[in-house]
Write a structure and sequence with these properties.
With about 240 residues, the chain is of the alpha/beta class. It has helices spanning about 10-25, 40-55, 80-85, 110-120, 160-165, 185, 200-210, and strands at about 1-5, 30-35, 60-65, 65-70, 100, 125-130, 150-155, 175-180, 190-195, 230-235. It has one domain: Rossmann fold. A seven-stranded parallel β-sheet has the order 1-10-9-6-2-3-5, with helices on one face. Strands 4-8-7 form a three-stranded antiparallel β-sheet, with helices on one face. It binds 2-amino-2-deoxy-6-O-phosphono-alpha-D-glucopyranose.
Length: about 240
């Protein structure tokens, strides 16, 4: 795992944007694996700015997202579909029909997981962007998820519900379940870019980069990927051993 430490969030977003934009410039038909959460918002703003100023085109780019809450329609402002439109897709020339995410309203959950796995097999990702949960989760793969798991439905942990409550009016409104790409599907991307910001991610970052590779810390699987870059701000990197 290559580790880049930046002095602040803006620099982290700039470095991440350089990487994402270069993937699209090198391959105008790229498939991007995208993520939600507060961490990639700065990156998405810079991708939109670059598109507007420099004309980087997403006309032939396809996008697949990691996860979606169960029970929220795409029009709900807390759904990840809504997040992706407002934070990124609406500011690019991407074809919305080529942007994919699990259907939070799917009635047949198993069929929806199988549909998404088939879609992922047809759209090999050039890069997969990730954030990290304070408990080391990636996407919604909570501690204990076997590494070979593909798309599945998860019951969110109390920790994740509490962390994500800041986006909702109250903790009661946070959906309890979600669809998520599994660790196996995440690892199939050619390149992985994981971003970590803030002191509350420092323990998870240390465990991911220096602890045992184990499903008890889902992000640790990334150490087995041949082309994975972590960009962390100083606070998130503060517990890493010096000189690494
Ligand atoms: C959610 C998402 C993850 C994300 C994590 C961290 O649980 N499912 O994909 O990485 O939150 O979010 P944030 O970037 O807001 O810290």
């Amino acid at each position: 795992m290559k580790i880049i430490v930046t002095k602040d969030y803006e620099t982290l977003s700039e470095k991440a944007a350089e990487i994402m934009i270069s993937v699209v410039r090198e391959n105008p038909n790229a498939v991007l694996g995208l993520a939600t959460g507060s961490t990639p918002i700065g990156l998405y703003r810079l991708m939109a700015e670059d598109h507007q100023k420099n004309g980087t085109s997403y006309k032939n780019v396809r996008a697949v997202n990691l996860d979606e809450y169960l029970g929220l329609p795409p029009t709900n402002d807390q759904s990840y579909r809504y997040f992706m439109r407002t934070n990124l897709f609406d500011h690019l020339d991407i074809d919305l029909s080529e942007t994919h995410i699990e259907d939070g309203l799917a009635k047949d959950e198993a069929a929806e997981c199988a549909r998404y796995d088939a879609l992922l097999r047809n759209l090999p990702r050039d890069i997969q962007l990730l954030g990290i949960g304070a408990n080391g989760h990636i996407a919604f793969n909570e501690p204990g998820t076997p590494f070979e798991t593909e798309t599945h439905v998860v019951s969110l942990t109390e920790n994740t519900i509490a962390m994500n409550a800041r986006f909702f009016k109250s903790e009661d409104e946070v959906p309890r379940r979600a669809f998520t790409m599994g660790p196996k599907s995440i690892m199939e991307a050619k390149k992985i870019l994981i971003l970590a910001v803030g002191e509350n991610k420092a323990r998870a970052v240390r465990e991911m980069a220096e602890g045992p590779v184990s499903p008890s810390l889902p992000a640790s699987i990334l150490r087995l990927h041949p082309d994975c870059t972590l960009i962390a701000d100083e606070a998130a990197a503060s517990l890493l051993k010096k000189g690494e």
